[in-house]
Amino acid sequence: MTSEFQELELTLPHIRLAGWQYGGMTSDEAKADPRGDVQVKPLVLALHGWLDNAQSFAPLAASLNDVRLLAVDWPGHGLSAHRPGKYPLHWIDYLYDLHALLQFLKLRGDRPLAIIGHSLGGIVASAYVAAHPDACEKLILIEALGPLSERPGKSQKRLADSFASHTALSEKKVTGEQAKAYTSLDAVVEARHRLTGLDKAACELILARNFEYRSEGDQSGWYNKTDPRLKLDSPLRLTPAHAEAFIRDLEMPTLLLMGEQGFAKLHEALEHARPLYRQLQVQTIAGDHHLHMTDPDGTADAIRHFLSACG
User: Fold this and answer.
1) Which residues contact 85 (CB under 8 A, 6 or more apart)?
2) Does the pLDDT value for residue 38 go beyond 70?
3) Which of 56, 80, 119, 162 is catalytic?
C-alpha cells in the first residue's frame, strides 16, 4: 500500500476488525488538527465479498478520490480476528458486525454517505439498511441483490452436511494435520486465477492480505490465514420468502452494478428482485464478478454519478 492508504484497527465490543481508509483524514484527526479548517470528505464504507478482503477495493479507492473510502476485512478474512470457538458460521453474523461497526463510527462522529457492498458485502448491506434506513443515505451493490435462499426441502441435508464438514475440520485440527504450504505467493495467485478466472493482478492484491509466510512444523511457505470455516456450508439458509422479507420495500436509493461477464444467476434473479427495491437503478459494466477491480474507473464513474444525483 502507498502512504495514502491508512491502515486502521477497529476494536468493536465483540471482535477486532482490520481495515484501511483512503482519501484524507479521519474525522477524529480533523478535529485534532490545530488549523481547524480541514475539510473532511464524505465517508463511504466498503464491504468486501466472500474470501476476499479490504484490498479488493484498493483499485476503486484510487479512482474514487472525492470521498474517504473506508474498507474493512470481515472477521476471518485478511488481517481481522477470527470468530472465537469452532462453531459453524452463518451470514447473519455479519449483520451484527456491520451494526457494531456503524455504532463505532457514530461514536467518532462519522456516518457514511453510502455503503458499497460487493457480493457477500452487498447481501449483508442490503438486509441491514432495509431494517436500519438511517444507516446511510445511499446503497451501492456490486454483483449482489439480497440474501441467498433455497427451498425448505433442502434443510435436512444442509444441516447434516454442514455438521459433518465441521466435525471433519475439528478432527483434522486435533490430529495436528498440517495446513497446505505454498512455495511462493505467485503459486497461490496462479492457483486462484486458474480456479476463478480472476485477473492475476487482482488475485495478488487480495491474496497478499489473506496469506502470510511462516514456518509450521518442518515446513516453511505461504499459508492461508483465512478462517477455514468460511469454506464450509452453514447449517441453515433462508427460504425464498424469508429472504425477500429482509429487503422488501427497501426505500433507500440503490445502485446495482453488474458485470457483463458477472454471475449469470444474478441476471436471472434481477426481475424477480426488482420490485423489492423502491428506488433501484441498474447499470451493467464491462467486467466479471470483480468488476470494481478490473474496471475501477468505470465503476468509480458510475458511483460518482449516483452519489452526486439528487434523491
Assistant:
1) none
2) no
3) 119
